[in-house]
Each structure stands twice: as C-alpha cells, then as structure tokens.
Fold this protein.
Amino acid sequence: MSGAARITLLHGGLIAALLALHFVLPVYHHGNMARIMVLASYAVGYNIVFGYTGLLSLGHALFFAAGMYGMGLAVQHLGMGPGAALAIGVAAGALIAGALGLLALRTTGVAFMIVTLMFAQAGYLAILYFGDWTRGDEGFVIARASRVLWGIDLSDPGNRYLAAWALFSAALLASLWLVRAPFGRSLIAIRENEARTVMLGYDTFRLKWAAMVVSGTISGAAGAAYALLFGYAGASFAAVEYSILPLLWVLLGGAGTVLGPFVGTLFMFYLIDLSSGITTAYMLIAGVVLVLLTLFAPQGLMGELRRRFWGWLP
Amino acid sequence: MEIGPYLLLATLEGAVMASVLALTAVGLSLVFGVMRVVNIAHGEFFMLGAILAWYVTQMIGGPPAIGFAVALVAAPLIVGAIAVAADMTILKRLDYDPERTIVATIGLLYIIQQLTLMGYGPEARPVAPPFNTRLALPWFEVKEGALALYWPWGLSTTSYKLAVIGAGVAVLLGVWAMMARTRIGLVMRAVQADRDMALAFGIPVERVYAMVFGIGAALAALAAVLIVPISQAHYLMGADPLLLAFTVVIIGGLGSLPGTVFAAILIGLSDGIISVFFSPTLAKILATLLVALVLVFRPQGLFGARRA
C-alpha cells in the first residue's frame, strides 16, 4: 500500500470510527467523547504552532477564550444568532493570534514562552476586570434558545456529539492537509533549523506568523464551539491551566503528529476522570505526567509509534 | 490624614513588600543567571516555606518567638533540600535544556501545589509573629513658625514589619557577600560566565547547579517565612509572588542581581501607590503587560546593558 493510501485509510478510519461510536457508546461516555472531540480540536490547533513550527506557546488559552467569549458575549450582549456569533468567535481567535504573533514572534525561545504566558495572563485578568459583562469566575450560561443553529438544537446530546464530530473532523483534515502542503513543510523546516530555512530564502517571520494565525483560528473555533455546545463561558477557561493542558495533551499524544492531539486528549481526559474518584487534586496527575513525559518520552505516544514502527505517519 | 503621613505609611508598607519581593526575585534571578533555567515552580517553593513555617510553629508550641526562630532556619533548609532533590532527579536528566526544563517545572508546580492541597488542605492558616509591638510614628507640622512633632491618628507600624525590612536587607547583603567575596560565589560566577570552561578547569558544574537551585528555592522559602506572620499560609499563595518575581527579574534585567534588587524596590514601593489609584486587578494587568512588552522591546531589561 502506498504511503498516501495508508494515511488516508488511518485518518479516515478514525473519523469513521468516531461517527460509529455515536450509535454504540453508553450515555456517560457519549457525553465525554463529545467534550474530548472539542478539546482535541483545540489541541490540533495548538499542535500547529508547538508540534510543527516548534514554538512553545504558553498562552493558547487566550485564543480559546477569545473564541469562547467572542461567541458568548455576542449572543449575550449583542443579541446575535448563534451562526453569526460563532463566526465572531472564530474571527476573535484569529485576530488576537495575529496581534499577539506580531509582538511575541519578535522574541525566541524562553522569552517567547514568557511573553505568551504574560499576555494570556493579562487576558485572563481582563476577563475578571470586566466582570460586569463577563461575570468573571462565575461565568454565564448561554440560553438554550440561542443554541439552535440552522434549526438544529445543539443542547440535545445527539446533535451535540455530531456537531463536535464535524468540528473535530474538519480540524483533523485541515491539519493533515496543511502539514503535507508546502506551507506545512516549510513550518517543519523552521522547527528543525530556522537559520538554514532563512538561508534558503524563506521569510520565517511571516511563516511563523501565519502558523500562529491558523493555530489561533482553530483554537478560537474550538472555544466558540465549546460555548455553543455546552452552553457556558467562564474565566477558568482563560486561566493558565487551559494553556498548559493543550501542551500536555500534545506532548502526551506526540508533538508534530496529526493524530497525537486526539490521542493525548483522550488519554488525559480518562486519566483525570478515573482519578477524580480517588482525589480532588486532579492537577497532580497532570503534573506527574508532564514531568514523566519530559523525562522519558519527549516524543509522546504517536511519536514513539512513528519512531519504532510507522515511519510514514504524518 | 494629610498626604505626607499617608505617603510615609505607604512607603513603609511598600518597603516590607520590597524586601520580601527582593529575596524571592534574587532567588529566581540567581537560578536563571547561573543555570539559564526559568523555574516556574519558584512560587511553589515560596508557598512551601510558608506552609512549613506553620507546621514548625505548631509542632514546637510555646512562645511564638522560639517556634518562629526554628522555622526561620528549618523551612529554608527543607525547601532547599527538596529543590536539590528535584534538580538531581529531574533537571539534571534534562541536561538543563531551557524549554524542556520549563515544561518540567510546570509539572513540578502542580505536583507541589496539589500535594500541599492533599496534605495541608485548602484553609489559610495564620502564624503568630515573634514580636509585634505597635509603634506610633510622629509627623511634623509648622506651628507658629517652628517645626513641631505630633502623632497623627492611624500613622503606625509594627516592630515586626521593621524587622522584616531589616532582615531582607541583611540577607541581600549576605547574598552579595557570598557572590562577591567567597570561593563558592567565585565558582558560581565562573559557571555563569562559561560553563564548559569551568568544567574544563575541574569545577563540578552539576554540583554547583544543584546548590544554586537549592539556594534559590531557600531564598524564596525564607521570604515566605518572613511574610507569613503578616499574611497567611495557603496552598495557592505561590502564584502572586511568582508573577511579581518574574516582573522584577525581567524589568531588572535577566540574571543581573543589582538590577533585580533595584527593580524589587521600585515595584514594591510603587505597588502600594498603584493599588491606591487603580484596582488590584488592573494593577496586575498593567504589570503583566509591562513584563511582556519589556521582553519584546527591551529584552535586556530596563536597567540592564545590552548584551552582544
């Protein structure tokens, strides 16, 4: 079988399997899976910048929250319909990623990490500061009536699962197409050796900025979809944990692999879900996994799989 | 109160803040300067210092001064030992790669914080200060053409707060003496200047790294023991010192100790005044944006010289 056929079969197979799960999963796991697919879309967006371009951002919660609040505030205060609000959420993610990229990409390495962390923190604090509109930590519920998109009631669990599935499929296929296109190839070149990429005549600043915008758009779409599907927007989604979590998911699943974000999100979600029966300090698990991953498996699950067996994995 | 006495009061509170902040930030700066490692878990070492101070004073009982004196020695030592252990088991194995150590110290942050939550619980608990005499402060006014002292209502501080300022200054002088005057300091500076050359001259670089990481954490813990009788011990108390210490270190110039101390005084003093005019949240927003913009446009810090 040729490489392209194998790749199509594997990724198409996952998408088909997730659709099939809709009909067989018990209620509890059906709900979990819808949430995992939305969060995995966020991780797919993060992977573009971290896994493929090699930029370690600690501020992606800003883009996720931009999508969530762009959507939520448009519905809540501007009285918009869900379709238009969704578009505003996605645009907010792209816009903020573009603006942050222009500033943060002037720095590299550790400074880039701190700059993204600080801007995301400023965004989080701003959400708390404008508590009159955002309701701060408490957040606000998006009324059921404004969650009916094109006649489909997204507060219904079945529709919600299918919407999450559509979002995730789109994100996965977009990222698969992107990293195999010349644009994605040049991002990988930047990750591997930026100086050489510059020497070969690429405008790396513009490429990195484009990667930030694409990543911010996908993250914003995931945030807006989260607000739309689960009917809630809150400041905790803008806090530093939500910048660390996609890093954790992508590291666990395998940075720079198309399937890694989904695999990592799935594993981590169920790890925390299972441990929450034992302790309320669930972020302990996240901390331990982070340390163990950096120590023993910096490639993550899919990365190891690619290194050992499937060299063709994109 | 008039503006004069009010400013004196704000300056005194700011000096307490600055002294604690300088200790925390110098610890962070030392680790970054010598090891080129950004320690995101630094705030958790601060928090551990405060929690341990509570445990020690509870265990010893008796007059608060004795328990506090023991905590002042024991908490930094224990936290330093934990940091050394973390360095040897985690950071050393990552070969101090800057990006991977940041991810690992984020993990460490959650491990320390959540273990504290499980062991110590979510309550905030007070530690009694060893001494706490209220000192009324005089202010002057011009009465019939001559200066006269009077004691305005509300203008006072406590002996403990003055002691914190004094202790902060003493420890900072100690750190400076260690770096400038001792053999250990010389070795640290050698490793900071050129790690490979130091290694070639037979300096055990890895042991120096472990020691620096331990000293940095111990300084944060010491700062926390000093402040815990004024605030309280809580498992989430590490976040604000981390943010402020970052602000100080970056504005003072990464890895520069005099710049760090200067920035700590500036930020500590201005924090009180900013909080008067703006809400604390807005003050924090401005501080984080300042850090980010300084890193983008003046990466050598506001006071640092441009490095090649």
